[in-house]
Specification:
Elements lengths: L9 E4 L2 E7 L2 H9 L3 H14 L4 H13 L3 H14 L4 H13 L3 H14 L4 H13 L3 H11 L7 H14 L2 H8 L27 E5 L4 H7 L3 H7 L4 E5 L14 E3 L10 E4 L3 H4 L17 H6 L11 E6 L9 H4 L3 H7 L5 E5 L8 H4 L6 E3 L7 H8 L4 E5 L2 H8 L4 E5 L10 H7 L3 E5 L6 H13 L2
Parallel strand pairs: 3-4, 3-6, 4-5, 7-8, 7-10, 8-9, 10-11, 11-12
Antiparallel strand pairs: 1-2
Helix pairs in contact: 1-2, 2-3, 3-4, 3-5, 4-5, 5-6, 5-7, 6-7, 7-8, 8-9, 9-10, 11-19
Length: 463
């Protein structure tokens, strides 16, 4: 960070005479460091109007804008900073990150290479370069840098985590699962509050093992397949699973005791985070248990029985165009409803929206009804969604938890993926190993949804 230049006083914001904003560097930086982003965002324009040649603050404004996902504006701020003070390695690296966020990966890599050349001893710049290489489809080059970084003393956990993701993309599962445990050192996941030791492969016969779900719905559905081989290996072991209550009905026939993760957890001999089973059971593309056998309750099945007779003579296609808006990468893994409406031009297909959450309103915005039958109002839980999917011929979607649910039911899934998808979808062979009923269509270049949907249109026409 640049040295702080001190300016005195505060200023009134234009058109708002009662709203005072800080114009001192230290006040503005304090807001940003304390993550008071709305106040900082409001204050930066006043400061930069008074100090338009402050390269450091243009760069800091870019950091703030990127944190708030205003990527094009962040890029412009970084360029302004570099015009005022060229060859700042840290700003070049930050610019590379923002360009990567906008899928301008060639420009991003150029910035990172220039930054590392200016400051070859800066490990953070090298890490940024490695992450961008992986997301640009060059994981092997990224792995070389990460392996080199991890030879340094006091390597932070984030380096091992990034190497885990890189090895997962490459299919190097043994070292990947070892580094995957670094997630617990990143303060991103709540550590289970249990009174028993961690299971790391100890004998489990006649013991009680408590498994704890740790990430999203999709991760729980993905890892639920590991319960059967675990029971087969330790038939006298009692298994409990603390997982999202929204999934209890679907997982209720797997022979484990399901508990609410926020309630009183049962006493056990050992506990294990659910995703850690992937490493403990030595799972790789050649040793993948089949998806968990999900249970559809009678009430949910009855609720959607009408779908069997609906739209006779047409293929029934369910679809989702967005995952959770709170997911950091959702803007890249999701796309707009209008692209799916192009697929709905085929009159031989009847479309059913399975979209929940704020994006459901897109159906009204784009006047998609009655071309699309909106099921969201009847989908009260995952069991309902499973019951609806059971009557469909295919589910077409951008990546979200529904992909794991539909593919676990054995339903044909057309998963439309960004250029750098989740590690599970890195290759067609891996997709088939983990979810035999799924077909993945990946962007051939970052941001190229047009090619993805052109291919999807051909797949649907073949139905």
């Amino acid at each position: 960070m640049d040295n702080i230049c001190r300016f005195s006083g505060w200023t009134r914001r234009k058109h708002c005479p009662d709203y005072f904003l800080p114009v001192r560097r230290e006040d503005l930086l304090s807001l940003q460091q304390r993550r008071q982003f709305p106040a900082a965002l409001a204050a930066y324009p006043a400061f930069l109007e008074q100090h338009p040649n402050d390269a450091g603050m243009w760069a800091n404004f870019g950091v703030l804008l990127r944190a708030l996902r205003h990527y094009p504006a962040a890029i412009a701020c970084y360029h302004r900073a570099l015009a005022l003070r060229p060859n700042q390695a840290g700003v070049l690296s930050n610019l590379g990150n923002a360009l990567k966020d906008c899928d301008r990966v060639a420009e991003a890599l150029d910035c990172h290479q220039r930054a590392v050349a200016l400051a070859p001893g800066d490990a953070t710049l090298r890490l940024n370069h490695a992450v961008t290489l992986r997301e640009a489809g060059q994981p092997q080059a990224a792995l070389v840098i990460l392996n080199d970084l991890l030879q340094l003393e006091d390597a932070p956990a984030i380096w091992r985590w990034e190497r885990a993701l890189t090895n997962l993309h490459l299919g190097n599962f043994v070292p990947a699962w070892q580094d995957y445990e670094a997630r617990w050192e990143l303060d991103a996941l709540p550590v289970p509050q249990v009174d028993c030791p961690r299971w790391r492969g100890q004998e489990l016969q006649h013991r009680h093992l408590l498994l704890t779900a740790e990430q999203g719905f999709g991760d729980t559905l993905l890892a639920a397949r590991l319960l059967a081989p675990l029971k087969a290996r330790y038939p006298t072991c009692a298994l409990s699973l603390a997982c999202q209550p929204e999934l209890h009905a679907l997982l209720g026939q797997l022979g484990v005791t399901l508990v609410h993760p926020a309630g009183a957890l049962p006493a056990a001999d050992y506990y294990c985070p659910l995703m850690s089973l992937l490493g403990l059971l030595a799972i790789d593309d050649h040793h993948v248990p089949p998806p968990a056998a999900l249970h559809i309750p009678v009430a949910a099945a009855t609720k959607f029985a009408w779908l069997a007779q609906h739209a006779p003579g047409r293929k029934k296609i369910g679809f989702v165009w967005s995952g959770s808006l709170t997911f950091k990468d959702n803007a890249k893994r999701a796309t707009g409803l209008e692209r799916f409406l192009k697929l709905a031009e085929n009159p031989a297909l009847q479309w059913y929206s399975l979209q929940k959450g704020p994006c459901q309103q897109d159906l009204q915005t784009h006047r998609a009804l009655p071309l699309v039958c909106d099921l969201a109002g009847s989908l009260e839980n995952f069991a309902d969604t499973a019951a609806a999917v059971a009557h469909l011929d295919m589910v077409v979607m951008t990546d979200s938890a529904l992909a794991h649910l539909a593919a676990s039911l054995g339903k044909p899934v057309l998963n439309l993926l960004q250029y750098k998808p989740y590690w599970l979808y890195a290759t067609d062979a891996r997709v088939q190993a983990w979810y035999p009923s799924m077909q993945a269509i990946r962007q051939p270049s970052p941001g190229d949804w047009q090619s993805v949907f052109a291919q999807a249109e051909k797949v649907l026409a073949a139905l």
